[in-house]
Write a structure and sequence with these properties.
The structure holds 2 protein chains of 2 kinds.
Chain A lengths: L2 H30 L18 H8 L3 H32 L5 H15 L5 H10 L6 H25 L3 H9 L4 H12 L1 H16 L3 H6 L8 H4 L12 H25 L11
Helix pairs in contact in A: 2-12, 3-6, 3-9, 4-6, 6-9, 7-8, 9-12
Chain B lengths: L3 E9 L5 E10 L4 E5 L6 H9 L6 E6 L2 E2 L10 E4 L11 H11 L4 H14 L15 H14 L4 E5 L7 H18 L2 E6 L2 H7 L2 E6 L2 E7 H6 L4 H6 L6 E8 L2 E4 L2 E4 L13 E6 L4 E4 L7 E10 L3 E8 L2 E8 L9 E6 L5 E4 L16
Parallel strand pairs in B: 3-8, 3-9, 6-7, 7-8
Antiparallel strand pairs in B: 1-2, 1-4, 4-5, 9-10, 11-12, 11-14, 12-13, 14-20, 15-19, 16-17, 16-19, 17-18
The chains are: A mainly alpha, B alpha+beta.
């Protein structure tokens, strides 16, 4: 290694270190600030206290909002996984003319359906259906927005299940439901796990849809509640915001680790046999 | 145990492809039967139609004394082994073998007992808790067989059972399958594109082309007396010599050289008829000196087949190949004479490729 290479390498690592530090700062703030007596926007060594947590618990909406988030996320995940799996299965097995075009169109449109652009018509639609201020309404709108992408990803998994598996089961006398339950679903389980987690993460962080469709403060999820943490003077209450942000993040991180360990994440099909 | 009877069976795919065309065939109880043919000849479709995975367009399928034409696969009491074995990757070996029994509603102890018994018969003990991904190709095949056996079916269907094994294992599996079928005595139909496999394993075979059966017979019948030039071309590790010629009296004129007509063919030909003379390289004796009734040519290629060599002679207007024992190969470029062994020469009509003693079919649909 020439001295020139050596200096170059040192420079490279210093650059990487700086970039890493830049991206690590918000994470460190998130982990440190909730335990700080005087929470600020700057990153500082915390003056340790648990006072912020007890202050948060005094807010009567804080913990219920996390439960609301769980309800919305699980509800949407169940709907999305069930419908995406059945839709992807049939799209994978039945030949329809223009099937691929249909899938790409769905994928394209889905980014608009839950997007800001479609919020007014969606609000009107929900209003006509009497689903304003209803968790069911929120779950339906979110599911509709996430389904196309979920179908698109799951169809790839379904395509990778050899037809001979199903035919073999059919020759043994298995019904269509038994084939789906005993053969197809277990084989694509990593795909289903990925879709479920992806859905939960999406709903967990979604602000706009529940913010617009839910009126009752008792129903609002954590992502919506966050915006109410201001002091009487109108300044952001950093103690509450940082503490709540930490509580808000932990379930998702834990779930991610658990599912990744149990099933492993994959966004593509394919079977090791 | 049951015989299989196919009557006028036809399968037309959407789009108009006639994969199986008005096919009638009886496979007696306990027979090991091969469906042989080139890719796309309809043999796999026929097997899948017997299994019920494809619905027959017309005609009927009977297993034993039951008409199963319109029954779903699960009610036909048959077991199928797929080309890729179709073992479920998420189940252990014992779960794979007992899964069909679970579908049939057997109690847990009962089905585990039967699975273990079937596994033992195929020497899978010790592997029962493994997953398919942890098994070799040969072991996977045995698991698929055990799964088929454990259901006690009336009929076995094998789709290209040996094609996923390497060459050496294939020979072992061939012997193994044949013994297993004989011990169980279950009527078995298997599909293959490998004529050597069919000749070695099957009691009888059907050679198929374009959805139709071209010949049904034992290995010996099909090998020694192919019913048409298509079968003649397809069967045999070295292709049959097919020489175009014209009948002249008691002989055939092949590009100026004379081949004697075999006795049984004489009454079926007329003077001046266009024919194809078929003779296997194995049934030609090669000599370095002129012989009466032999085809003369110049030695062009010598191919080593292991215990024998295939010698190709070139002559004006045709080439002819003959096998000779190793060590007796003539030198390239020298003259040689190939003499057909009496009674092994076949004569086909040139217009439809059938043997001259076969009845003439008025029009081929």
């Amino acid at each position: 290694m020439t001295p020139r290479d050596f200096v170059g390498r040192i420079g490279f690592y210093v650059l990487i270190g700086l970039v890493t530090a830049f991206f690590a700062l918000p994470m460190l703030w998130l982990v440190g600030t909730p335990f700080d007596e005087q929470p600020g926007l700057a990153l500082s060594v915390p003056d340790p206290t648990l006072g912020n947590f007890s202050e948060l618990l005094d807010n009567r909406f804080a913990l219920p909002s996390l439960l609301n988030s769980v309800l919305l996320a699980l509800g949407t995940a169940v709907l999305v996984v069930a419908f995406a799996a059945t839709a992807a299965y049939s799209l994978s097995r039945v030949r329809i003319p223009g099937r691929d075009v249909l899938l790409y169109l769905l994928l394209l449109l889905s980014s608009i359906v839950t997007g800001t652009a479609a919020m007014v018509p969606i609000f009107l639609l929900m209003f006509e259906l009497g689903l304003i201020d209803s968790r069911v309404g929120v779950v339906l709108v979110l599911s509709g927005g996430l389904l196309p992408a979920a179908i698109f990803i799951l169809k790839d998994f379904m395509d990778s299940v050899p037809k001979s598996y199903e035919e073999s089961a059919r020759v043994f006398g298995a019904s269509a439901f038994q084939i789906l339950r005993d053969v197809v679903v277990p084989v694509i389980r990593p795909g289903l796990a990925t879709i479920a987690v992806w859905t939960i993460v999406n709903v967990w962080g979604n602000f706009l849809v529940p913010f617009i469709l839910l009126r009752d403060a008792d129903k609002q999820p954590a992502a919506v509640l966050m915006r109410t943490f201001y002091t009487e003077g109108g300044a952001p209450n950093l103690a509450l915001i940082s503490t709540f942000s930490l509580l808000f993040s932990i379930p998702v991180v834990v779930m991610y680790l658990f599912v990744n360990r149990k099933y492993g994440f994959r966004f593509y099909g394919g079977i090791k046999s | 145990m049951a015989a299989i009877k196919l009557d006028g069976l036809t399968k037309v795919y959407p789009g108009g492809v006639r994969a199986v065309d008005d096919l009638t065939l009886t496979i007696p109880d306990g027979e090991f039967f091969a469906l042989l043919g080139p890719s796309g000849c309809g043999k796999t479709t026929l097997l899948r139609t017997i299994a019920g995975l494809e619905e027959a367009t017309s005609g009927s399928v009977r297993i034993g004394d039951r008409d199963v034409t319109h029954l779903p696969p699960g009610k036909r009491e048959l077991a199928m082994v797929f080309q890729d074995y179709a073992l479920f990757p998420h189940m252990t070996v014992v779960d794979n073998i007992s899964y069909p029994l679970k579908i049939k509603g057997l109690a847990k102890d009962d089905r585990l007992g039967r699975a273990v018994k079937a596994g033992d018969e195929l020497s899978l003990d010790g592997l029962m808790q493994r997953r398919p991904a942890e098994l070799s190709g040969g072991q996977q095949q045995r698991v698929a067989l055990a799964r088929a056996i454990a259901t006690h079916p009336q009929v076995f269907l094998f789709d290209e059972p040996l094609s996923n094994l390497d060459a050496r294992l294939r020979l072992e599996a061939r012997t193994f399958l044949k013994r297993l079928q004989r011990d169980l005595g279950v009527t078995t139909v298997f599909v293959t594109h490998d004529q050597a496999e069919a000749l070695a394993m099957a009691d009888r075979m059907a050679v198929m082309d374009a959805g139709r059966i071209r010949q049904v017979g034992t290995a010996r019948e099909v090998f020694q007396r192919p019913a048409s030039t298509f079968v003649a071309n397809f069967i045999g590790s070295t292709p049959m010599n097919l020489l175009s010629g014209v009948v002249r009296g008691q002989a055939v004129n092949v590009s100026g050289q004379i081949v004697q007509l075999p006795g049984d063919a004489r009454q079926h030909v007329t003077d001046g008829q266009d024919v194809v003379v078929g003779v296997r390289p194995e049934y030609l004796s090669l000599s370095q000196s002129a012989a009466d009734g032999a085809l003369r040519g110049v030695v062009a290629i010598v191919e080593n087949l292991g215990t024998a060599s295939l010698v190709t002679l070139e002559s004006d207007g045709f080439t002819v190949a003959a096998t000779v024992a190793d060590g007796e190969e003539p030198a390239i470029g020298t003259d040689a004479w190939a003499l057909p062994i009496p009674g092994r020469t076949l004569v086909y009509r040139r217009e439809d490729g059938e043997l001259v003693d076969a009845p003439v079919v008025a029009a081929v649909a």
